[in-house]
Amino acid sequence: MTKIQFLQGNIACAEGALAAGCRFFGGYPITPSTEVAEHMAARLPKGGGVFVQMEDEIASIAAVIGASWTGARAMTATSGPGFSLMMENIGFAAMTETPCVIVNIQRGGPSTGQPTLAAQGDMLQCRFGSHGDYSIIALSPASVQEMYELTVQAFNLADRFRVPVFLMADEIIGHMRERIDIPDSVPGARRNTEVDPAAPFRPGPDMVPGFPVFGSGHHVHVTGLTHDEKGYPCTTNPRLHEKLVTRLVRKVEDVRNEIADFEVLRPDARVVFISYGAPARTVMQVLADHPQASLGHLRLKMVWPFPEKALEAFHGAKVFIVPELNMGQVAREIERHTDIRVVSLPKLGGDLHTPDELFDVAEGWL
Predict the structure, then answer these.
(1) Could you list the residue range(s) of the whole structural domain that residue 54 is in?
(2) Domain assignment present for 244
(3) Residue 219: its pLDDT value, please?
(4) For the chain, which residues score pLDDT lower than 50?
């Protein structure tokens, strides 16, 4: 059974978090993500959870990390300037292998930029924004329904891989209202709490250690310093550092094809759009308006790790056209993985590409 509702994207995100078992939200209001925090403030305590408005975004992500180590599914929500403030502790979460969910409703930047208008300018920041080498997972919804569903998926992936997982939406998706179906239950993935008491950071076959919750009887040292499998700092051993960081990257990157989430439309097309988030809606309109044209579409629901194998679905493609609300951040990643011509279509200022704009470019390749 499902329940039909008419919701704003940000509210659907909060409802997805609640359905997924989120029991802690630490955040600070910022346009255009504030509705996520407001809804969690109203709903989370009624379900036995904790909502805390922190003094800033640095404290918000720190509180989320701490709550996760008590065993709670924890999240925060922000936008560009707040996201930048979180970066050091996002690196700490990656190094300490702390599962958490960070929602970024993107707006125009840099700096305070355009607080009320949409952008996708944080896509490279979420992947590489903190210093050092690590890997994360980033999802990008293109509808209010996916704001709900991908938030649930984000919590499951965070627990499975013990990594920060990002829901990289944009102002358009965050603030639009659509009909959505809310199921009675959602897929769940429980944290692996089986821990070697002598070496709580010793990984299993999937390169992910069990998660020793504070207060469960395990003696665990948690540090952002390079550490051994006991959790103790060991900062001057080159081989240990290389082994640790390589595992932090490989535990996600080695299964990128298994966890990839994307849609392929018209795999025989010669001209293929690749999109994520709000621009995907314009691409879908182009395909609906021109059903006879040799136009295809690869829609990425998971942008990081990038699913390069998905490009192989289009055997006859001669060009990939990539509309983005930035200067071509993901287009550059696509270029690394294909010999097919990649045409970047950047757009700044808060407006979506129009169907005519996209078709005019595609028509030149048909």
Answers:
(1) 2-183
(2) no
(3) 83
(4) none
pTM exceeding 0.70? yes
Closest CA to 91 of 56, 61, 51: 61
Cβ count near 339 (within 10 Å) = 6
| pLDDT at 215 (0 to 100) | 83
What pLDDT sits at residue 188? 86
Same domain, yes or no: 13 and 101 = yes
Q: What are phi and psi of 68, to 5 degrees?
A: -60, -35
User: Of 163, 183, 203, which closes a domain?
Assistant: 183
Q: Which pLDDT score, from 0 to 100, does residue 240 have?
A: 97
* Tokens encoding 185: 């239950």
Three-state secondary structure readout of the chain: CEEEEEEEHHHHHHHHHHHCCEEEEEECCCCCCHHHHHHHHHHCHHHCCEEEECCCHHHHHHHHHHHHHCCCEEEEEECHHHHHHHHHHHHHHHHHCCCEEEEEEEEECCCCCEEEEECCCCHHHHHHCCCCCCCCEEECCCCHHHHHHHHHHHHHHHHHHCCEEEEEEEHHHHHCEEEEEEECCCCCCCCCCCCCCCCCCCECCCCCECCCCCCCCCCCCCCCCCECCCCCECCCCHHHHHHHHHHHHHHHHCCHHHHCCEEEECCCCCEEEEECCCHHHHHHHHHHHCCCCCEEEEEECEEECCCHHHHHHCCCCCEEEEEECCCCHHHHHHHHCCCCEEEEEECCCCCCCCHHHHHHHHHCCC
Q: Is residue 62 part of a domain?
A: yes
Q: How far is CA 214 from CA 201, 217, 224, in A?
A: 14, 8, 17
Name the one residue in this structure whose structure tokens are 């924004």.
Answer: 129
CA distance 46 to 29: 21
